[in-house]
Design goal:
The protein has 265 residues and is of the alpha/beta class. The chain is built from eleven helices and eight strands. Helix 9 links the parallel strand 6 and strand 7. The longest helix is centred in the last third of the chain and has 17 residues. Bound molecules: 3-methyl-2-oxobutanoic acid and sodium ion.
Length: 265
């Protein structure tokens, strides 16, 4: 099983092969996804919501995300691992962006980094790519700017479509090897996909993109509370684990566990 490289993404687009991605924040899930043949794993700052217990991705720091990224990168043998640059770790300058990207490469040993923003982030993407680090862009709905955008709002609708395309083109021109399109109308995502040479990875962007990405705790039915419309739930891990823990508690309470088969002579 040959490691996935950036050229795999390009070949996939050119040959019409769909790219698959999931988020991962730990070694156990990363190993399962890698063995199942998922092409890339994103150590997303959605760890803020799914690991660290924040309401948004805004408070997540580089120091918090790097140990999680190390666990994921160390677990895979094939999948391409992307470290998500947190809010506040790249906006200030291209130098700051490169500094953060280098930390992810050296301390977490990921294979690429991702950062949010199109035109506004192009100079940061360029600087990181010029240092030999692959960059995945991210346009459309960008959770780190949730408060600036006024909430979880679909981007690129109507008149905003032209700006979405311009953002994606800026990411490509800056040297990114792929770009995430989050929560945009399917028709707009299709236009972006046709306009770009690099592959588009959709998350809530409809079917006319080059690949699909989901937050793993959403797709596996682990997440509590509201899950976005675009998520298809492939499992009910919350139900499975609730059942298991309830039976464990009952067995201990009723002294059915441990039995002789679980005890040492
Ligand atoms: O952090 C994350 O999970 C993401 C994806 C949803 C694009 O950035
Ligand atoms: Na993210």
């Amino acid at each position: 099983r040959k490691r996935v490289r950036t050229r795999h993404f390009q070949n996939a687009k050119e040959n019409g092969i769909a790219i698959t991605g999931l988020t991962s924040y730990d070694m156990l899930s990363a190993r399962i996804f890698d063995e199942a043949g998922i092409d890339f794993l994103l150590v997303g700052d959605s760890a803020g919501n799914n690991v660290l217990g924040y309401d948004t991705t805004v408070p997540v720091t580089v120091d918090e995300l790097i140990p999680l990224a190390r666990g994921v990168a160390g677990a895979v043998s094939r999948a391409f691992v992307v470290g998500d640059m947190p809010f506040g770790s790249y906006e200030n300058s291209a130098e700051e962006a490169l500094h953060t990207a280098v930390r992810f490469m050296k301390e977490a040993q990921v294979h690429a980094v991702k950062l949010e923003g199109g035109v506004r982030s192009a100079d940061k993407i360029r600087r990181i790519v010029d240092a030999g680090i692959p960059v995945m862009g991210h346009v459309g709905f960008t959770p780190q700017s949730e408060h600036g955008l006024g909430g979880h709002i679909i981007q690129g609708r109507g008149d905003a479509e032209a700006a979405l395309i311009a953002d994606a083109l800026a990411v490509e021109a800056a040297g990114a090897f792929s770009v995430v399109l989050e929560m945009v109308p399917a028709a707009a995502a299709q236009k972006v996909t046709e306009a770009l040479r690099i592959p588009t990875i959709g998350v809530g962007a409809g079917p006319h993109v080059d690949g699909q990405l989901l937050v793993w705790t959403d797709f596996a039915g682990f997440t509590t509370g509201r899950v976005p419309k675009f998520v298809k739930q492939y499992a009910d891990l919350r139900g499975v684990l609730t059942d298991a823990v309830t039976r464990f508690r009952g067995d201990v309470a009723e002294r059915r566990y441990p039995g002789p088969e679980h005890s040492y002579e």
